[in-house]
From TrEMBL:
Belongs to the bacterial diacylglycerol kinase family. InterPro entries: DAGK, DAGK_sf, UDPK. Keywords: ATP-binding, Cell membrane, Kinase, Lipid biosynthesis, Lipid metabolism, Membrane, Nucleotide-binding, Phospholipid biosynthesis, Phospholipid metabolism, Transferase, Transmembrane, Transmembrane helix. This is Diacylglycerol kinase family protein.
């Protein structure tokens, strides 16, 4: 019994790893989360606001895992089930989209702060090496998201 419980965590980790390796959208969400948390350091967010950000980040990733799972299950259906499979896959993708749009709107409410934007610009103006380092992460993130081979 104990081993089955531990094994369930191992299987879950394998599923997450497979999604990161094979699903471009999951890699995109990981990169977006990295930049959200990085820029959040310029804000005086409360623990409640960080909790909300974390719920949004993991919510999108969890829905992406569900969506990817449904897509895999619905691949190559029998000809008479093809239309239904397409609708099911579209609905799962729609769930991710709706939650992502909601998170983007909430993100605007949390992050839209002109004085903080000015502070961010000032910080990077004073620390050009860090700006270059930040800019150097962009092609790395691009390659991480779009450069994977073996994607379905």
């Amino acid at each position: 019994m104990k081993h089955r419980f531990i094994d369930s965590f191992i299987y879950a980790a394998q599923g997450i790893r497979a999604a990161v390796q094979q699903e471009r959208n999951m890699r995109f969400h990981l990169c977006a989360a990295f930049y959200v948390y990085l820029f959040s350091l310029f804000y005086d967010f409360t623990s409640t606001q960080y909790a909300l950000i974390t719920i949004m980040v993991v919510g999108v990733m969890a829905l992406e895992l569900v969506n990817s799972s449904i897509e895999r299950v619905m691949e190559r259906p029998a000809p008479e089930r093809y239309r239904t499979a397409g609708v099911v896959k579209d609905m799962a993708a729609g769930a991710v989209l709706i939650f992502s749009i909601g998170c983007a709107v909430a993100g605007v409410f949390l992050f839209w702060n002109v004085p903080v934007f000015e502070r961010i610009l000032g910080y990077f103006a004073e620390h050009p090496v860090l700006l270059l380092l930040l800019l150097a992460t962009l092609p790395v993130a691009w390659r991480f998201v779009f450069g994977k081979k073996g994607e379905k």
